[in-house]
Amino acid sequence: MSTEAPIHDAPAPFSGAADAENADRPADFIIRSCDGFDFHVHKDILKFASDVFNDMFAFPADTSGSADSDPRRDGKPVLVVPESQSALHKLLCLAYPPDLHLLDSYTLVGEADLDRIVAVYQAADKYQFHRVLRLLRNMLDQPALIDAHPYRLFAIAKICGLGELARKAALSTLRSPIDPTAAFPEMRCLSWEEGHKLLRFHHLCGQRAAKYVEQKGWKFFSMAPAVGEAPSHYHVWAIRSHNHSHCCATSEPQWSQWFFNYTAHLASRLQTAPSHCTVETLELAPADRELAERCSTCSADPNRERDFENFKGMLAGKIKASHETLVDTYFDFSQTSK
Questions:
Q1: Phi and psi dihedrals of 110, rounded to 5?
Q2: Strand order in the sheet with 76-80
Q3: Cross-strand pairs, 78
Q4: Under 8 Å between Cβ of 40 and 76
Q5: pTM, two decimal places
Q6: Helix or strand or coil: residue 301?
Q7: What's the mean per-residue pLDDT of the chain?
Q8: Residues 6 or more apart from 239 whose CB is under 8 A from it?
Q9: Where is this region: Disordered (predicted)?
Q10: Which position has the higher pLDDT, 81 or 224?
Q11: Neighbours of 183 (CB within 10 A)
């Protein structure tokens, strides 16, 4: 003989308990979660926040008390929904007016905050809580959050149909090597094809970026006069004479040895972390910096550090543009944009 699961009141402020906040506006409707929690809510707020509830409450409630009518508790109609207590609590906290400060306890900062975010987003979409959908999109579309959890944000974005977020997350995966141990709840909802495609995109970007550096695609702006400089000013690492003591590369006579070593190191790093950020953050190795300081020509150039940073910025821009072109041709985000 089966027994019904016990019913519990939802956590505050949807518990139905009398408090200062609800003293003059008691709840008049109950939403019951699939795991048996009753959320005591207000029809007027739901009508304003949700198109679905607005349409639902446009029809008079069945008060006949017949077996076919909706269940009631404490004189309030009860709507049983398939969403869990956790998802409903987050959804309603986002749906209620901001002046109630329910949002204060709901932020997306750490990875644990992302748990069940898909269920909340899907519920907001199902019941047409348009403001909640905008809030969730804004919460998810934070650079720090995307950079900290790019693979998980990619999966969340694909499941929820957020094309622009998926694009940003795909590009953010390039900031670090592929993590073969990455695991998160949304992974099981991402198809093998989509997951494999994301890893393949990372690999292709690594190949392209490393090849660009190895084949000296940067050569034209490495030797050219710096912006705003007289035509006679060239970057000091571009050797045009034999006056570079200690740092003239024998294998690459056109470039100072320390600069040649830097580009070789950079190409290797870009194979596994092909983001433009790798270019921006990779510094000269101590041995190569010492080599440059020992060269009378390189060490005497007052513009060396500035020109080197400008070179890195231009190279990073080229690599970033290449990745952004590839991501738009490799993925079809138009099918998932909302």
A1: -100, 175
A2: 8-9, 37-41, 29-32, 76-80, 72-73
A3: 30
A4: yes
A5: 0.85
A6: coil
A7: 85
A8: 248, 253, 254, 255, 256
A9: 1-20
A10: 81
A11: 9
